[in-house]
């Protein structure tokens, strides 16, 4: 196992854990509005109620977005550099699709509570 394998595995595992933690906190309505983590759109940031409503609705997708990162991290510990390159594209692509779906779910749950986006 090379330094590259270790680095990629750690980065993906930590990223996956952070996404899972965010999804869990969002689902329990214990993720406060903040400047660093969460679905930060004009609608979710409009009020504490909009933030909690949107994140509760998106929690499932946020938790699911952790899976490709965690699975990628485990795979990277044993993969070749070429396999890591291809698997990274897949893992990040799936994660991004799930995060985008989470944002859409949050927006739909909030409805017209927040300000309209330009």
Verbal overview:
The chain is mainly α. It has 4 helices and no strands. The chain has helices spanning 3-27, 48-64, 66-76, 81-110. Helix 1 packs across helix 2, helix 1 (3-27) packs antiparallel against helix 3 (66-76) and helix 3 runs antiparallel to helix 4 (81-110). The N and C termini lie far apart (49 Å). 35% of the residues are buried. The model has no long low-confidence stretch (mean pLDDT 92).
The number of helices is 4
What oligomeric state do these chains adopt?
Answer: single chain
Q: Can you give the helix content as a percent range?
A: over 70%
Order of helices and strands: HHHH
The biggest beta sheet reads: none
- Give the uncertain stretches in residue-range form: none
Structural class: mainly alpha
- By DSSP, the count of extended strands is 0
Cα distance spanning the termini: 49 Å
Radius of gyration over all CA atoms, rounded: 16 Å
Shape: elongated
Mean pLDDT: 92
- Percentage of residues in DSSP E strands: under 5%
Give the topology, please:
Layout: H1 3-27, H2 48-64, H3 66-76, H4 81-110
Task: Give me a quick take on this structure.
It contains four helices and no strands. It has 118 residues and is mainly alpha-helical.
Provide keyphrases for this structure:
118 residues, single chain, elongated, 70% helix, mainly alpha
